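Standup notes
- DV: blocked on the single-chain target, sequence here:
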Amino acid sequence: MPTDSPSLSDPTGDDDGTDSSFDPGRSQRVPPWIIRAIALFWVGYVFVALLGRVWDRLAGFGLLLLVSLFLALAIEPGVNRLHRKRGWRRGSATALILFGVLFGMATFVGAMGTLVGTQIVDLLQNSETYIRDTVDTINDTFNTSLDPQEVVDEVNRDDGPIQRFIDSQQDNAIELSLQALRGLLAALSITLFTYYLVADGPRLRRSICSRLRPDRQRQVLAAWELAITKTGGYLYSRALLALLSAFFHWVVFQAAGIQAPIPLAIWVGLVSQFLPVVGTYIAGLLPILLTFLDSPGKAVIVFAFIVVYQQIENYFFAPRITARTMELHPAVAFGAALAGFSLLGAAGALLALPAAAMTQAIISEWGERHEVVMNELVELGAVDAPPEDPSPGDD
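- DV (later): unblocked, structure below
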């Protein structure tokens, strides 16, 4: 009589066709690492969003600190000289140099504002005369037959371009006043930060070095001193070149009888030196245009002198003045200005030059230097030198 025996697949004899080790609830449970990853993602997202919002709020403040830092680096060599060699207190020396810089900037801005305002008023008051002269010049040059009176009537209509310009500026008067107040507040803030960065410079550096090991302290102080020396030297050399440029242009503008020769000369000097590559052309454009309205012949004289002086400066003045400081390669200066403008606008374009000078100085002092191997690719005169003639015995 056969007996029931447990099957091989179910040794307990309870074979009901299912796998007792399978747990449906366990297969649908989310692994813990996924929950942690999702939580970490949202925490990071909220942190980045808050950081971006804080940066938007503090971007203007950070720009003020950055401007103050580079201005402090620029004037500290002069402060150190007055403090060590003349016995001045750091606070008094800082105030003297800082307010001297501010006075020069205020004088320049005031002179340029007066010049632009005077030219706009003169253009509006004598618009008919300028229009008639321009139309006559066009008719004589291109053999046209334009009627000057029709052009004058078209411009002076109630809905003409001059009236539309005046109406648009009336709507912007309040906004311009607010911008002027914000600019004044920013200038005062930069002055205050710069004063404390320079006057309390030794105390600030002592506080930073107290947190570092002695070897790190030497590295930080060496880099700081190099930044002060090179950045200040670069800006002083630019300022001296700007002063020379302004002086010679003033002499020519005054001799040629150009209106407002001093503001125009200062404009040419500053813009040509502190805007790389294109600064010379931008600086010369304003005096040429203003002179052309008065006399095309004088405008030609101004253009010719700007071109000639640029060559004299490149070959005589700039090499001698920058020999003891540092000269930025034009490509480096132009690239730095573009990068600064992309990041921080017009202020970034101006700050990029001393930043590039400081970076170049630190990089030039970092690392070891080795003797360069002999190769025609690294010979300084290889491009301009003519090739050597082969010897008679060579094939």
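- Follow-up: The two ends are 114 Å apart (CA to CA).
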